[in-house]
Design goal:
heterodimer, A: alpha/beta, five-stranded mixed beta sheet, two-stranded parallel ribbon, 7 strands, 24% helix, B: 405 residues, mainly alpha, three-stranded antiparallel beta sheet, 47% helix, globular
Chain lengths: 157, 405
């Protein structure tokens, strides 16, 4: 049922690293962080995944490794999507930046860094984008309380 | 700078490249940027050398808030992402939840969602084109377009009870069916739309001032657009016929006859024209959908997500418990994750949901086209005049609600 491109990619990825499956029409691959840049470069060069849609993270508080970084890609040629997942540890939440491959990585990695504190090695500009300069913590982490406030301008008495 | 009020942003560049250039700040609240966005630009005379675009002034913790409400309770929140076409947000979100739950919506619901998505697209494009034209001084064209938009707002209020933020989608269906006479009024509005959009074409398409401001301004190539994550009308304006409604058909789009308009150069004029043509295609689609609108229920018969009929809630205990559980605990969405993408008026609007089997989402992430577009907008601003920022920004149609979440 899956698209032939996805099947070819599945065969290719299954041979190298991680577990590969299909879910709701997407190819889902779980990889080691070290394998990520190579796999993405392969997907872009040989399977036509030219649109980097999205990067975000899921905070599985209490599990190790704690963070799951989730990438979505789309092929404008074959009209199929793929999702890559990789787990990083809380002490060293680092993955390689995709800036060498996609321009859109600049902003999306900044957002993910803002919200989860994932460090994208090789992204020269991880300044806050949705948050502000001097914000302490990463609000989408599960241990950041929803009601915590950090007003930039103090409230009046 | 007053130390009591620290600067919320740190510019990417503090010192000019040369001693005859100047760094200026535009926004975040500026009459000519529709949306709260801040641009720090280095100017050589009137020419923009480089820009640093800051978003986030409308950030209100949408994704954090989502993790504390039931799946149903989020619908009013997703309305407020792209508040110009709230219905498309509703339907994309519901589609993602339905994927996770394995719910298949009814044929009538599928057609109505398609119809309302296209109606919303017209409203969104009307707003974008009207605001863009007004910023260039075309007041008459603005009034024509906004007049039609207001007919549509009132018409949608007649259906949903609200002018802008409708909260009309439901997981597994819709809030209510069409009121009497709604489709009749729809046909009238579409005829008026054609009349007034025709006038706007006559006013601006071959207008010398308009062409001088729009042609060859804010040009982006297809390769750059894809590299910087552009989708929707901006990508199509570069000549690439990429449209999720054609490429990965969802809802009832596979049954419809429509074209994907594309531009030639990827400049402001092409983005204007692509939006105008897309509205015509939407009208064409709505007319087909009205012709083929099936009967039957609008909600799926599935007690996991659909609320029971009110008279049953008051008369039988099972329905009362079902209602209570759905409201208090939320629909049980099976554990897993799903990504659903709809072609929103600005591009690919994606919802990435993670569920652990609770009535409350573990994570809701929005792939907002406006946010991704802001990451590459410097490609369209650098090298042009300072005054060109206004029409270029207008044609990118950044919506603060979905950009900043």
């Amino acid at each position: 049922m899956a698209h032939t491109v996805l099947e070819a990619l599945e065969a290719r990825l299954a041979a190298t690293a991680g577990t590969v499956s299909f879910a709701h029409g997407l190819l889902v691959a779980e990889l080691e962080p070290a394998a990520l840049p190579k796999v993405v470069a392969l997907m872009k060069a040989e399977f036509g995944f030219d649109l980097f849609l999205d990067v975000t993270a899921v905070d599985w508080l209490g599990q190790t490794p704690r963070f799951e970084v989730v990438y979505h890609f789309y092929s404008t040629q074959h009209h199929v999507r793929a999702r890559l997942k990789t787990r990083v540890r809380e002490e060293d939440p680092t993955v390689d930046s995709l800036i060498p491959l996609y321009g859109s990585a600049h902003y999306m990695e900044r957002e993910c860094h803002d919200m989860y504190g994932i460090v994208f090695r090789g992204n020269p500009d991880l300044r806050p984008i949705l948050l502000y300069e001097g914000f302490v913590g990463h609000p989408l982490r599960k241990d950041y309380p929803k009601t915590q406030e950090q007003p930039l301008v103090p409230y009046r008495d | 700078m007053d130390a009591k009020f620290p600067n919320p942003v740190r510019s990417a560049f503090e010192t000019p490249l040369r001693d005859d250039t100047v760094i200026v700040n535009i926004g975040p609240s500026h009459p000519a940027t529709h949306g709260t966005v801040q641009i720090i630009a280095e100017l050589d005379g009137e020419r923009v050398l480089r820009t640093d675009v800051h978003a986030g002034y409308l950030h209100r913790g949408f994704e954090k808030e989502c993790e504390a409400h039931t799946w149903h309770n989020l619908i009013p929140y997703v309305d407020r992402l792209n508040y110009v076409s709230a219905l498309i947000n509703d339907f994309a979100y519901c589609d993602a939840v339905e994927k996770l739950m394995g719910v298949e919506i009814t044929p009538r619901c599928r057609h109505l969602r398609t119809l309302l998505s296209e109606y919303s697209r017209i409203v969104d494009h009307l707003t974008c084109v009207a605001a863009g034209l007004m910023e260039l001084g075309a007041m008459t064209a603005f009034l024509y377009l906004v007049m039609i938009r207001d007919y549509m707002y009132e018409h949608l209020a007649n259906l949903t009870g609200a002018r802008v933020t409708y909260t009309y989608g439901r997981i597994g269906g819709l809030a209510r069916d069409l009121p009497d006479g709604w489709l009749g009024r729809l046909a009238e509005i579409l005829d008026q739309y054609e009349d007034f959009v025709g006038r706007v074409h006559g006013l601006v398409d071959r207008n010398r001032i308009f062409i001088d401001r729009m042609r060859d301004v804010g040009v982006i190539s297809t390769a750059d657009a894809i590299n910087w994550g552009y989708t929707g009308p901006i990508l199509r304006s570069t000549g690439a016929p990429r449209d999720l409604r054609k490429d990965t058909p969802y809802l009832a789009y596979a049954e419809l006859d429509f074209e994907v308009p594309v531009g030639i150069k990827g400049d402001n004029y092409d983005r204007y024209y692509v939006r105008m043509r897309e509205m015509d295609e939407s009208v064409h689609m709505i007319r087909q959908l009205v012709e083929t609108l099936p009967g039957g229920p609008i909600n799926v018969d599935d007690h996991r997500c659909t609320l029971p009929e009110k008279h049953l809630v008051y008369t039988e205990i099972e329905s009362l418990i079902n209602h209570f559980k759905l409201i208090m605990e939320g629909p049980r969405v099976p554990a897993g994750d799903a990504y659903a993408a709809h072609e929103s008026p600005n591009g690919e609007l994606g919802f990435y949901l993670v569920s652990t089997g609770d009535g409350v989402p573990y994570k809701v992430h929005v792939r907002a086209p406006s946010f991704v577009h802001m990451g590459g907008v410097h490609k369209m601003l650098d090298g042009y005049q300072l005054a060109d920022i206004v029409p270029t920004f207008g044609s990118v149609n950044m919506i603060g609600g979905e950009c900043d979440r």
